[in-house]
Amino acid sequence: xxxxxxCSSSKQKLSRRTFVKAGAAVGAVAAVGGxxxxxxxxxxxxxKPAESTEVAEDIFAGAQEFYASCPPECQHHNLKAxxxxxxxxxxxxxxxxxxxxxxxxxxxxEWLNTDARLTKxxxxxGEKGDNKWKEISWDEAIAMVAEKLQxxxxxxxxxxxxxxxHAGNFNALAGAVAPAFIARIGGAMSLTGTLCCAxxxxxxTTMLGRRFYDTRNTIVDSDYILVWGNNPxxxxxxxxxxxxxxxxxxxxxxxxxxxxxxxxxxxxxxxxITPATDTALxxxxxxxxxxxxxxxxxxxxxxxxxxxxxxxxxLPVMEKADDxxxxxxxxxxxxxxxxxxxxxxxxxxxxxxxxHEASYTTIFDFTMAECAQWTxxxxxxxxxxxxxKVTELARDYANAKNGMIIxxxxxxxxxxxxxxxxxxxxxxxxxxxxxxxxxxxxxDAGGVTNFLKLTAMFDNPKVEGLPSVPRVQxxxxxxxxxxxxxxxxxxxxxxxMTQWPNSGLLKEALKKIPFVVVIDSLMTSTALYADxxxxxxxxxxxxxxxxxxxxxxxxxxxxxxxxxxxxxxxxWIFTQLAKKxxxxxxxxxxxxxxxxxxLEGTEFxxxxxxxxHAIDAYPKDFIPxxxxxxxxxxxxxxxxQAGWASKGVKPVPSYYKGAETVGGSSGLxxxxxxxxxxxxxxxxxxxxxxxxxxxxxxxxxxxxVMVNPKDASARxxxxxxxxxxxNDRGEHKAKAIVTENVIPGVIVxxxxxxxxxxxxxxxxxxxxxxxxxxxxxxxxxxAEIKKG
Length: 788
Ligand SMILES: Nc1nc2c(c(=O)[nH]1)N[C@H]1C(S)=C(S)[C@@H](COP(=O)(O)OP(=O)(O)OC[C@H]3O[C@@H](n4cnc5c(=O)[nH]c(N)nc54)[C@H](O)[C@@H]3O)O[C@H]1N2
Ligand SMILES: Nc1nc2c(c(=O)[nH]1)N[C@H]1C(S)=C(S)[C@@H](COP(=O)(O)OP(=O)(O)OC[C@H]3O[C@@H](n4cnc5c(=O)[nH]c(N)nc54)[C@H](O)[C@@H]3O)O[C@H]1N2
Ligand SMILES: [Mo]
Prior knowledge:
By secondary structure, this protein is α/β, with parallel strands linked by helices. It contains 25 helices and 29 strands. Among the domains are: 41 residues, no CATH class; 194 residues, Rossmann fold. The strands form eight sheets. It has a six-stranded mixed beta sheet with strand order 5-4-20-19-18-6, covered by helices on one side. A six-stranded mixed β-barrel has the order 24-28-25-27-26-29. A five-stranded parallel beta sheet has the order 10-9-8-15-16. The two termini are 24 Å apart.
């Protein structure tokens, strides 16, 4: 792929005089990102330019300003574009950001202007993967897709079609159009399970009634923060300053991670842990807390289902079988069994030692029974966290004035029992009452999803009865024709060849599917294996609305320029398809119409957003669960989950060893003794940004893996060697960083490298699916590493 250097691709001809001012501007952009992109390669300026009496020409003078949200699954900063002569010449921070956007946002100027942009529909003209194409017209392209879809419907039925998207663009309209089209042609097979945070979906949504609350606005009120298996210095860089403030004020930030990450290196303490064992640590901490009576009984009794009774077979005792809120408790005042929500009730947390013990146990005791084996010593043996540290973490968290757990969408969730890891952390907050106050709580991805309900842009017909398969096992299903053959796969707003597990198998699947359509703005790793690539618009080339998870802003994204060549936005593309297939009636409108419709019923209007661009829509001073109420049917935090038990596992957090771990049931450790974990890079958001020349210049143009010196020397690997990480699924080529920053037995691979850059680390990742919530298990992967 041709990825021209940002400085040359901007095609600005700078005279010696104009550079003085422009150079300063480039320097300012670089400083915002904390990096020195083009500034380092720029010609040296005269140290005393001021002596010249000539006034430097401002190349930005007279530029028009436009605003848009940076739309991939990141922090959705508001960006400002400067436009001159129909071209975007600079992208900088927009308005109302809570923190500064980063170099990725700034690099949009290269993405928008690079010669590598796709400008015409491209039809495969060689084998899949050969990267040989012939340009065709949109009329031909649309007719071809419509014909292939109709053929799939006629021969297999709608289940022979998959039209998938994931996290590539969080804008409302971009997200609505493909499903609207598919619903109108009768539906398709769907792919289930997020690749990201199934653990939180499965744990927090059920236990607390909702997810997507962040505690961002009160981080600085905390005096003790557990950053658990995530790396906010990179993945939430806009807010990391707040963690630093906590430490400046004498508070502690503890990072629990197998890797001495960017966050760990800036924390008070790094607690290395064996991957996929976090639940054992959390259960062990809970045991210390309860054994030492550091738990908050009053909070637990009032706000959780912990005092509720279970019968001898472990099932909840309900007043009415059909009323899920009718949990029963033993009232300590009357020694009788009453509803948990009876007036004036003071429930027993445990019935041990009472007459009720013969008939019942409580959810509290049932929960603690799962912790019983996790003594600090047992936790040390399983997780590698020293016993004394387990006790210290438990005491410090429980005793903190305001303790907060940062889960975000951490790496520990992308393991086969990620749901329990999240649930056991939730219990730590609930049992210690570290929730509902400023500086406490459980940090989830966040954003305004719970506060701003947009109106549906399209009224889709209901489609029922079509099959679904887990996204992480798509390749298996394609190759085995289960539950039926797939004839058409349309992929947009995602990058399967870098992000889905087991890339080698996925490549085979993409080769097998008769017609693969990729809609993207660059020739991505996935587009390489398509039959037809449709060029789409990027940010600032289409109008859209952002009001979603992760950002507190509601933003109108302006269309500042036309997309290059014949590229179009997703709305246009799916509108053409809908018309061609005779279902275009609801697609007759422009972007503004759909945005106005989405905002109906909210307190924001299109015209207001047109003026203000980005508005903080997060309720001022909101603290999740401040009133002690949760969003469950009982209004209490529901510790016991029948839904988990229905999957054949415990209804309360319990530690199960992942199959693909050292000592796990797969037995793969005999052949592949190293645990591979993934990390995200500051230079990319998954498959986006990282292949731009600017990013390659300031970061690297090849993948690295971190290896502990012990593991490296056992394999004669030296720092900087070319290495291959491999297992039965495939190989990932990288350069070794030999470092104590990762614990022995673990290697760290980077997320997001393209085929054109040597290939993704997903070639080796585990493609099994978590049983509780369909977890993506990329961080539960075993492999070996060799020079090569
Ligand atoms: N720059 C940048 N920012 C991003 C993204 C990006 O790609 N680039 N992606 C966005 C998205 S979609 C997401 S989901 C978030 C993710 O945000 P993070 O979860 O912070 O990102 P990761 O780098 O996947 O994982 C963080 C850490 O998890 C550790 N880890 C892996 N497995 C385990 C485990 O079993 N236990 C423990 N304790 N630690 C483990 C890894 O060593 C790594 O340091 O970031 C968002 N922000
Ligand atoms: N090995 C490994 N795999 C992982 C992870 C990991 O850490 N390691 N992390 C997992 C996580 S947390 C996540 S969230 C997923 C993310 O995986 P994906 O959701 O696949 O995310 P991206 O790679 O960012 O894909 C975004 C693509 O959408 C395109 N795009 C952007 N805007 C538009 C638009 O308006 N229209 C269209 N048609 N396309 C657009 C971009 O150009 C880009 O190619 O990956 C998961 N996979
Ligand atoms: Mo994610």
